[in-house]
Amino acid sequence: MTESLESVEINVLGRAYRVSCQPDQYLLLRQAAQRLNDALGDLRIRARGSSNEQLAIMVALNLSHELLLEKNRIQQYSESMEQRIRQLNDVIQEALKEQSKLSVDDCN
C-alpha cells in the first residue's frame, strides 16, 4: 500500500516553497532544507555580493559533487565487499571439497 503525499512548507533563502512528500520522509526533507539553508548561509558570507541565483547554483554544484563522491565511495566499497565475498566463498568451497575428500578417504 502506498502512503499518501503530505504537503510541506520548506523555507529556502527566506522564501517559502510547498512540496509534497511521503509522511515518513518529512524529517529527512526538513533536514535537507536545513542543510541547504546552512550551505547557502555559509556561502553568502564567503561570496558577498553574489545573487541568490548564483549562490543557489554554487551550492547545488557543491552538493552534487559531494553526492557523486559519496556514491563513488559506496560503489568502491560495494565492489570491495563483493570481491571479498567471492574470495571467502572460494575458501569455503575449497574447505568443503577438502572435507569431502577426507570423508571419502575415511570411508575407505
Automatic annotation (TrEMBL):
A Gene Ontology biological process term: septin ring assembly
Keyword hit for Endoplasmic reticulum: no
Subunit and interaction comment: Homodimer. Interacts with FtsZ.
Protein name in UniProt: Cell division protein ZapA
Keywords: Cell cycle, Cell division, Coiled coil, Cytoplasm, Septation
Family: Belongs to the ZapA family. Type 1 subfamily.
Pfam families: ZapA
Cellular component GO terms held in the UniProt record: cell division site; cell septum; cytosol
Protein's cellular compartments: Cytoplasm
Family matches, as InterPro entries: Cell_div_ZapA-like, Cell_div_ZapA-like_sf, Cell_div_ZapA_N
Function statement: Activator of cell division through the inhibition of FtsZ GTPase activity, therefore promoting FtsZ assembly into bundles of protofilaments necessary for the formation of the division Z ring. It is recruited early at mid-cell but it is not essential for cell division.
Taxonomic lineage from the root: Bacteria, Pseudomonadati, Pseudomonadota, Gammaproteobacteria, Aeromonadales
Organism of provenance: Tolumonas osonensis
